Every structure is written in structure tokens, then in C-alpha cells.
Amino acid sequence: MPSSRPAFSKDPLYQLLRSDNVKGFNTQREQGHACDLRGVDLRTLDLRGMNADGLDMTDAYLRDADIRGVDFSNTRLEGASLRGARISGVKFPPELTAEEIRLSFDLGTRMRYNPLCPERRPNGE
């Protein structure tokens, strides 16, 4: 069960994002450093240009964050909330329906994955 409050992680890569150093975050990821962004507080941060490929951002709080242009297509965002975030040009995972994204943006609900999404069904069935 997710925490009711966003976490402030001690993860060094998370701390780079908190200090508005997306470039440093991307560099560390390119060098193979792992990052745990599950349930973290990313509210109001400017995350434009962030390399989110393969990240697990389950239950992350993105309220009022600037995520314009970020490619989340291969990022786990189940349970994340993005009320009021700047989302122009964002590529969301195929498991998230437009309705889930809209509800999260408008009301701050946690996004739920579509269990019938063909991209995630075992053996493509």
C-alpha cells in the first residue's frame, strides 16, 4: 500500500533532481547508476529533458511539475499523480488511458494502468 505522503529520498540521483540538476541526473544514469523514484516527491520540479527510460516512478508525486516533452513511454507510472503538471508533449506509457491521465491532471487521482493493454499482456494475448 502506498504511503499517504510523498517521500524525500536520500538517493543521490533523486537529490540531483531536487537541486534542479537534470543534466547531472542524466549523466549519472548514462554511467549506469541506479535510481529509485518510487513514491518520491517531485512536486513543482522542472524535469524537462529528464531521461526517464526504464525508471520505476510508481506512486511518485508530480503535482505542478514541469514534465513537458519527457518520454515516459518506458517508465512505470502506475499510482503516480500529476495534478496541474505541465504535460505538453509528454509521451505516456501505453497502459495509461487518456481518461486516467486527465483525471490525474484535473483531480490529482493516482493513475491506474489498463489491464487489457496489449503491450503488457503475457505473450501478447
Describe, in plain words, how this protein is organized in 3D.
The protein has 125 residues and is mainly alpha-helical. It is built from three helices and no strands. It has helices spanning 12-18, 22-30, 98-107. Helix 1 packs antiparallel against helix 2 (22-30). The longest helix is centred in the last third of the chain and has 10 residues, at 98-107.
Blueprint (SSEs and pairs):
Layout: H1 12-18, H2 22-30, H3 98-107
What's the gist of this structure?
By secondary structure, this protein is mainly alpha-helical. The chain has helices at 12-18, 22-30, 98-107. Helix 1 (12-18) runs antiparallel to helix 2 (22-30).
What distinguishing features does this structure have?
125 residues, mainly alpha
Span between termini: 29 Å
Using only C-alpha atoms, the radius of gyration works out to 14 Å
Low-confidence stretches: 121-125
Instruction: Give the structural class.
Output: mainly alpha
Strand share of the residues? Answer: under 5%
- The best one-word shape is globular
Question: How many strand units?
Answer: 0
Helix content: 10-25%
Mean pLDDT equals 90
| Structure annotation, total helices | 3
Number of domains: 1
Largest sheet: none
- The secondary-structure element order is HHH
